[in-house]
TrEMBL record:
Similarity-based family: Belongs to the small GTPase superfamily. Rab family.
Catalytic activity annotation: GTP + H2O = GDP + phosphate + H(+)
Localisation: Cell membrane; Early endosome membrane; Melanosome
Organism name: Canis lupus familiaris (Dog)
Database matches in Gene3D superfamilies: P-loop containing nucleotide triphosphate hydrolases (3.40.50.300)
PROSITE patterns: RAB, RAS
Any single GO BP term: endosomal transport
Residue numbers spanned by region Disordered: 187-216
InterPro entries on file: P-loop_NTPase (IPR027417), Small_GTP-bd (IPR005225), Small_GTPase (IPR001806)
Bias type Low complexity, positions: 205-216
Listed name of the protein: small monomeric GTPase
Length: 216
């Protein structure tokens, strides 16, 4: 998969159905959330990435069989003063990536707090992924991979990958894994605020001129 506007693994043809999902990134400041998004959306990495103020919005798509999954990505600021704004971004999200820095133990502790908050306040069906970023700095690792954290992810029904925005390690794979877990069948009619909280089938919208969702 490449970081084009629509990524098509294995040379697959254009998908016949397009499903749109809201995805939010959460985590401490400087763990690499913006760098992960930039790598996924534009295939770029900036060594010195400015801190996000409030939140940034980007879009990118991946292709699965006959379905294109379009992500509406909200990259939130990690500074504590912006924490109170986070529910505004993860409310109605179908997916979340909680990011920590493998060289900083405190960021993993904070990531677990974010996971608990999502489990308590976000949609019950939200797909949560845990990303241990900066895997290219393994020689400075403070959060061990082999022992506890995959087990923690399993216990909390999370997707888990170590990533590197710098080298692109597992970045596309992470978003692809999330896309595979999102519900994309049984379209339903939408209305009002509830419609904005679900995945929207854009193909059905254009064909039938009415809102459809791609979630169960």
């Amino acid at each position: 998969m490449t970081s084009r506007s629509t990524a098509r693994p294995n040379g697959q043809p254009q998908a016949s159905k397009i499903c749109q999902f809201k995805l939010v990134l959460l985590g401490e400041s400087a763990v690499g959330k913006s760098s992960l998004v930039l790598r996924f959306v534009k295939g770029q990495f900036h060594e010195y990435q400015e801190s996000t103020i409030g939140a940034a919005f980007l879009t990118q798509s991946v292709c699965l069989d006959d379905t294109t999954v379009k992500f509406e990505i909200w990259d939130t600021a990690g500074q504590e003063r912006y924490h109170s704004l986070a529910p505004m971004y993860y409310r109605g999200a179908q997916a979340a990536i909680v990011v920590y820095d493998i060289t900083n133990q405190e960021t993993f502790a904070r990531a677990k707090t974010w996971v608990k908050e999502l489990q308590r306040q976000a949609s019950p069906s939200i797909v949560i992924a845990l990303a241990g970023n900066k895997a290219d700095l393994a020689n400075k690792r403070m959060v061990e991979y082999e022992v506890r954290w995959p087990a923690y992810a399993d216990d909390n029904s999370l997707l888990f990958m170590e990533t590197s925005a710098k080298t692109a390690m597992n970045v596309n794979d992470l978003f692809l894994a999330i896309a595979k877990k999102l519900p994309k069948s049984e379209p339903q009619n939408l209305g009002g605020a509830a419609g904005r909280s679900r995945g929207v089938d854009l193909h059905e919208q254009s064909q039938q001129n009415k809102s459809q969702c791609c979630s169960n």
